[in-house]
Amino acid sequence: MKRVYSILALAFATLLLTGCPHINPDPIDPDVPDIPDESWRNQASKTKLSGITYQLNVYSFADSDGDGWGDIRGITQHLDYLDSIGATALWLSPIHEAMSYHGYNVNDYYSVSSKLGTEADLKDLISKAKAKNIDIYLDFVLNHSGKDNDWFKLALADPSSKYHDYYVFPNTTGDYITGGMGGWCSASSGSLGYKGLLHFKLDTSNPSQPKLTITQATGSAQSGNTDTSVKWFIYENNAIRMYKTGNNTYEITLAIDNEWGVLVKDDATEWGNHKWGASTNDKLVEFGKPKTLVKGDSASDLIFGGSSSQYYASFDASMPDLYYGPYAKASESETFKDLAAAADKWIDMGVAGLRLDAVIWIYQNNTAANVSFLKQWYDRCNSTWKAKGGKGDFYMVGEAWCDNAEKMAPYYEGLPSNFNFYYWYTLKDRIGKGKGDDFAQTVIYFQDQFRKYRTDFIDAIKLTNHDEDRAANDLGRDVAKEKLAAAVLLTSPGKPYIYQGEELGYWGNKGKGDEYVRAPIKWTRDGSVPSAALNGKVDNAMLTADISVEAQEKNDASVLRVYRNFAKARNAWKALAQGQIEAVSSPNSAVAVWKMSYEGQTVLVVHNFGTGGPVLPLTNYKTDKLIVSNGTVTVSNGAVAMGAYSSAVFLQ
Ligand code: MG
Q1: First vs last Cα of the chain: how many Å apart?
Q2: Does the chain have fewer CB atoms within 10 Å around its N or its C terminus?
Q3: How far is the CA of 71 from the centre of ligand 1 (A)?
């Protein structure tokens, strides 16, 4: 099939002058070898390992009833679209009754939010998706519930009720470790740890065990002491120097307004050994009663007042942390049993997987505790799955968002699959630098880390998600780079996730609000978008007619076409989906090359991360059978010329 040659391709043709160059901008061309049937794609046990998952925000994906909220029926109505980009599973944002539009502060884990639909709608979606070999995964929030959850209301109303043990209160004992990003909140005021005037008196007679006495005060607040010879500070939102009022006493009266309590410091800016606070499990300060302070990294915030209605929240006051007791026996806690019963309900209905939110905070970034908990949770859900006759093992993927892959890897002892945030960090870095030659080795390095903890790990690779700036922003809104990123994702080993809107080239950043990275799908050139949940925080300059699905489906040069073509190839060629990766020494620093092999089938994957047009002497490989490509790829006598940001996959 002849096509219009790009200027770049003509340059290559002129350069090469050897034989007739084969230009193939259309990836699934009649003149490439036979495309196998999609039998691989229809094997649920295989697609669970390496099939494409589409992540969607139910509230902004598609609206079936015209109320401006996306809903479950809207998803069902667009299954053909999801099928067309090769989805073998859908990860739905939380569907339960919740306090916020995004659903991550759940009020009832057994319910379907009335804004999103009904249980009947969910059953219908599961059934119709299954007919297309698409699984449904639910987002399950185990770290915290919503503050309006009946469990939490009952916990507050009656400290002797079993629900009191579902949450973390100052008198909670066990493996709960405060710290990390969390803080204490007051149930009475709704969001503040304390608001009002407090007097602080510090006694340093015993310099290694100073005592702090806090009393409620009247009158007016003092400003900080400017006498720099005084080395003692109260830290609320910043360090405030105290006044010396005796040989070993320092005092100050301050207007306090915060969620997290206070610390004492002996340096205005340094932390570490300059921090003084409460010892773990003894954080409450009773007004008027001296509190002995401990020093260093283990010193925790001092909590005011002795109220029994303060609770711990890792994220914000609307999300009280759930508590499962000592981690080794988490599955015996009533909290675990209640959540598991809710999960059972959805698994029994046909849900084939769960995505677990914020798993590193369940036991406050204590990896061993979290992993132990997750293993118990997974085993419980998997046994439910098997009891109902589910094929293979249940799928579960964790959001173990750690600093690096090495720190995340141990989570594979708890879960079969985890999101690989580091894949995208690497990919955007290398595309930015125009350097592809070490990409395959980096992917293999990640795999080696994960394999230490689980041999059958399922590497959940992705570009960005609902909590990150859009991939397009990271790539400088360069459409050629966005297409390259899509092609790399869909030719990599692992289980790729495509986030709602990524396939359309959406951009957006979190600076003005998370809503801007959760934009609704623009289905038609002229139609409205399901944006009611986003409270006006929608970039209408982005949601033009041309970015719509309708427009991109008709446009050969669209981002959507690249996603569809590469997804189709991945789902048709088992080596591309399921293959073992092997790095190939790259003849050019800008170019990533690797092989993927599975059950006797091998493909060669080539991506140009740069703007140059290198000609690659891939003479040791077959280049006559192009499975899929993007950008300008020219083959002549075994040499492959790769245009800027182009991609090609050759059958071996
Ligand atoms: Mg609706």
Answers
A1: 22
A2: N
A3: 5
Is residue 570's pLDDT more than 70? Answer: yes
Q: From the candidates 139, 165, 399, 482, give the one annotated as an active-site residue.
A: 399
User: How sure is the predictor about 36, in pLDDT bands with cuts at 50, 70 and 90?
Assistant: low
464 in the same domain as 546: yes
Final residue in a domain of this structure, among 541, 572, 603: 572
Q: Does residue 155 belong to any structural domain of this protein?
A: no
Q: How many domains does the chain have?
A: 3
pLDDT band at 192 (very low <50, low <70, confident <90, very high): very low
Asked, for residue 91, whether it belongs to a domain, the answer is: yes
Q: What is the pLDDT of residue 34?
A: 56
**Residue 177, domain member (yes or no):** no
**Do 33 and 58 share a domain, yes or no?**
no
Residue of 63, 357, 474, 515 marked catalytic: 357
In a domain, 626, yes or no: yes
399 is catalytic: yes
Centre of ligand 1 from the C-alpha of residue 265, in Å: 53
Please state, in angstroms and rounded to a whole number, the distance separating the CA atoms of residues 214 and 199.
Answer: 6
Among positive and negative, which fits the CA dihedral 111, 116, 121, 127?
A: negative
Do 395 and 288 have their domain in common? no
CA of 478 to the centre of ligand 1 (A): 33
In a shared domain, residues 373 and 341: yes
Query: Does residue 195 surpass a pLDDT of 80?
Result: no
What is the pLDDT at residue 39?
72
Supply the pLDDT for residue 47.
83
Could you give phi then psi for residue 592, rounded to 5 degrees? -95, 130
Q: pLDDT (tens digit, 9 = 90+) per residue, 132-171?
A: 999 999 999 999 999 999 999 998 888 788 999 999 987 7
User: How many CB atoms lie under 10 A from the CB of residue 589?
Assistant: 15
Residues 503 and 425 in one domain: yes
The secondary structure element, H or E, covering residue 339 is: helix 334-349
**DSSP 3-state helix, strand, coil percentages of the chain (rounded to 5)?**
30, 25, 45
- Clarify whether residues 125 and 224 are in a common domain: no
How many whole angstroms from 58 Cα to the centroid of ligand 1? 9
Residue 611: which CATH number? 2.60.40.1180
pLDDT for 306 equals 46
Cβ atoms of residues 574 and 602 within 8 Å: no
- Residue that finishes a domain, picked among 519, 544, 572: 572
3-state secondary structure of 291: strand
371 and 481 together in one domain: yes
> What is the per-residue pLDDT across 442-470, written as a single tens digit (0 to 9) for each?
999 999 999 999 999 999 999 999 999 99
Under the banding of pLDDT at 50, 70 and 90, the label for residue 362 is very high
Pairwise CA distance, residues 552 & 485, whole Å: 18
> What pLDDT was estimated at residue 194?
65
Measure 646 CA to ligand 1 centroid, in angstroms.
Answer: 40
Note whether 460 and 420 are within 8 A (CB).
yes
- Residue 342, domain CATH: 3.20.20.80
- In angstroms and rounded to an integer, the radius of gyration of the C-alpha atoms of the chain is 28
* Residues 233 and 358 both lie in one domain: no
Q: Give the domain range for residue 624.
A: 2-44+581-651
CA–CA gap between residue 494 and residue 457 (Å, rounded): 9
C-alpha–C-alpha distance, residues 531 and 82, integer Å: 20
**What digits encode the pLDDT tens for the residues 609-629?**
999 989 999 989 999 999 999
